[in-house]
């Protein structure tokens, strides 16, 4: 599909999908960056920082595609849109835990590991579909991102298995985190109101297929750690694809856009 051969419905579906992809990575990259200096050990501090930087780079690629479609500058789309215009899944905006990352953070590493592992599996499935997208620029970007994502997935799978297989408090906290993440994970998997049009235009596989493939990707890890599958997935805190968000997003955007608002002509 080329921009010249898409009607208004197809263009809306394409931009909606790109906003979902961009906003998902943008918010999760920010939440990951808050762990800088707080990760369990220095090697993880470096690795997690690298993963977060990669993820922010993925968001930038999607925002650039939106800019190429005439939706505004990538900087503006990333930093200047209000919370109500964001299409990220609510799970990805949720704070890492209580406290401020500069002032007595009391973050939950188990929640972070589970959220990133679940999301990375879903992202891998989505990217596999996007490499066959009818919109060639999107397919090309998806193929580039796939290379980095392989290492992200190995990283989070290792943490997920080691912590869940550990005795005592580690397994208890991981089990709780799995239920917590599952309660909002449907928000990651949904394509929102324009999902039917996305599929009709060949932009991505249908939501049911993506969900089934994500479950199939996650299931072996649950067997590996001897846990039952945490179904059903839900959207406990709202459907971000419809612009439903939590106060956590307002807080995140205020921090993320602080420099942009202070120096709007800077290069992001």
TrEMBL record:
Gene Ontology BP terms? phenylacetate catabolic process
Pfam families attached here?
PaaA_PaaC (PF05138)
Q: Quote a single Gene Ontology cellular component term.
A: cytosol
Q: Which superkingdom does the taxonomy of this entry point to?
A: Bacteria
InterPro entries according to UniProt: Aromatic_CoA_ox/epox (IPR052703), Ferritin-like (IPR012347), Ferritin-like_SF (IPR009078), PaaA_PaaC (IPR007814), PaaC (IPR011882)
- NCBIfam families under this entry? PA_CoA_Oxy3 (TIGR02158)
Q: What is the protein name stated in its UniProt record?
A: Phenylacetate-CoA oxygenase subunit PaaI
Species per Swiss-Prot/TrEMBL record: Geobacillus subterraneus
């Amino acid at each position: 599909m080329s921009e010249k051969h898409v009607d208004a419905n197809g263009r809306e579906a394409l931009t909606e999908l790109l906003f979902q992809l961009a906003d998902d990575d943008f918010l999760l990259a920010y939440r990951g960056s808050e762990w800088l200096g707080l990760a369990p050990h220095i090697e993880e501090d470096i690795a997690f920082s690298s993963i977060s930087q990669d993820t922010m780079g993925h968001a930038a690629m999607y925002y650039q595609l939106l800019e190429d479609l005439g939706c505004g500058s990538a900087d503006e789309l990333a930093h200047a849109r209000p919370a109500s215009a964001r299409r990220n899944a609510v799970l990805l905006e949720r704070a890492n835990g209580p406290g401020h990352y500069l002032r007595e953070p009391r973050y939950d590493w188990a929640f972070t590991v589970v959220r990133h592992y679940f999301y990375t599996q879903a992202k891998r499935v989505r990217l596999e579909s996007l490499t066959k997208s009818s919109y060639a620029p999107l397919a090309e970007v998806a193929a580039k991102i796939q290379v980095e994502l392989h290492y992200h997935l190995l990283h989070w799978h290792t943490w997920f298995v080691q912590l869940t297989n550990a005795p005592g408090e580690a397994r208890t906290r991981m089990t709780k985190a799995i239920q917590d993440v599952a309660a909002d994970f449907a928000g990651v998997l949904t394509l929102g109101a324009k999902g039917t049009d996305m599929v009709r235009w060949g932009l991505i596989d249908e939501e049911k297929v993506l969900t089934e493939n994500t479950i199939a990707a996650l299931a072996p890890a649950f067997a590996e750690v001897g846990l039952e599958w945490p179904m059903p997935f839900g959207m406990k805190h709202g459907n971000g694809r419809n612009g439903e968000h939590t106060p956590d997003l307002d807080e995140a955007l205020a921090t993320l856009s602080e420099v942009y608002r202070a120096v709007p002509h800077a290069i992001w």
